Amino acid sequence: MFSDHSGREVGIYDKDDGWKSLNLFDNGLIGRADVIYDTTQVETEEGWVDFIQRFDERFYYIKDSHRDRHLGSIQVTIDQTNQVTASQDYSAYGEIWRSLNSSTPGDRYKFTEKELDIETGYAYHGARYYDPWRGSWNSADPLEDKYPGLWSYNYCAGNPLNNIDPDGRKLEKDEKLFAPIVDKKGNQKEYDDMTDEERGRFLFQSWWNAHGEKVEKLFGKGGKYESVTLRLKAGHPNQKSTDKHTNGFTLWGTNKNKPEDMHRGGRAVNTAGKYDLKNLAINVYINVNSKKINGETIPHEFEHVSIIIHFVEIGGIVPKAGYAYSRDANDQHGMMKLKDKRPYKNILE
């Protein structure tokens, strides 16, 4: 299995036979192409030679959604002639409850869009393997010491109807941010030929190439902030918003808060006794549709992340985040301009 820079599985490649299958992406996994090679012999002036043709048989996925959050569980697979080749429904914990068609060997992705090992029946979620029949992980939570009240093999804190656990860890990355920026022929687009949305993704991906490894180390297993839930998202906190002038947003709260219940910087918040690094969640939104997004957008949002983590860690008051050009030392934007006199440290430095 080959993966790209974001860890997303691109396809299956055999060193002797070449590509076996390729995954298709557009704001997440949308299907796959099974690669078929047909060999025929052709007579030439030099004799008979093998003529190899490649055919891609495409399959597309229809997924479910849960309230306002997209789980991505694949319920129906259709081929390129619009015929249903597989369909299934799942229990709350991901066990296949009902299957209406026979799956083909290529149907590897099932519950929450994760790859299912056909031999074992376990689903690979990135950090751990999950057993949907038992409704639990097959290995202990790498963050178990941070959550003494929960069983370390627990899935979604025992409540899959209201919680999600994308990979068994605490760093969540929006697939849309990592989508390839290519033309119809699959070639990388030049910057001048990109749409506003593609330029936004290009700027994020350029930043991620430089800093992504550090972010993974800080918020991944064994990292300094492994207990903090960090979500990197494309778009606007208000999914229906048409705002194309605000570049980024950083929301914060507990890991049980929905986005609409999180703090948006409108006021200072005392964290003492209510917030700590064990329950802290931070959502960073990169508004890729903004016409003003630039190379400073993502670093700026991570300054907010650094400020929030600093004051939560010491049990202090997280300052408000008001006017972007503010020089008020009690405002997050004003603090950023203090340089060497900042009361916090940028976590990526």
Please describe the topology of this protein.
Layout (H helix, E strand, L loop, with lengths): L1 E2 L5 E6 L3 E8 L3 E16 L2 E17 L10 E6 L4 E7 L5 E4 L15 E2 L6 E2 L4 E3 L4 E2 L33 E3 L22 H24 L9 E6 L13 E7 L14 E2 L9 E7 L10 H17 L3 E2 L13 H5 L13
Parallel strand pairs: 13-14, 14-17
Antiparallel strand pairs: 1-2, 2-3, 3-4, 4-5, 5-6, 6-7, 7-8, 9-10, 10-11, 11-12, 15-17, 16-18
> Poorly predicted ranges (pLDDT <50, ≥5 residues)?
none
Order of helices and strands: EEEEEEEEEEEEEHEEEEHEH
Q: What's the helix count?
A: 3
How many strand units?
18
> From the helix content, strand content and strand pairing, which structural class follows?
alpha+beta
What is the share of helical residues? Answer: 10-25%
Q: Which descriptor suits the 3D outline?
A: globular
Q: Please list the strands of the largest sheet in the order they lie side by side.
A: 1-2-3-4-5-6-7-8
Q: What fraction of the residues are assigned to beta strands by DSSP?
A: 25-35%
What is the terminal separation in angstroms? 34 Å
Radius of gyration: 23 Å
